Amino acid sequence: MQAYELTQLISQREASNKRYLEFLKVPDLSMGLYILPVGGVDSQSPHTEDEVYYVVSGQAKIQVADEDRSVQAGSIVYVAKNVEHRFHSIEEELTVVVFFAPAEYSLKA
Fold this sequence. Notes:
Blueprint: H1 6-16, E1 20-26, E2 29-36, E3 50-64, E4 67-72, E5 76-79, E6 85-101
Antiparallel strand pairs: 1-2, 2-6, 3-4, 3-5, 3-6
């Protein structure tokens, strides 16, 4: 079994000094912790895998293709592969658990 505690993942992510910490990767799934500061810029590009975002804390907006909506703790957003998307208007530090299926970077564009 692999089990994780959010507080430990947050500490590991802080120690890495990066916005994204991948903590699980198997062929059909990968998971990571993504944290964006207030006013931060989310510069990600579309991925070749489907994605699900689970917002743990914070408040922002997400744009997926031409649709825009607010997100906060408890929001779950599905983004299909190859679709433009990004968080913006980050009003409170955003902590997001990210699920990729299959695992991130396992497919070619």
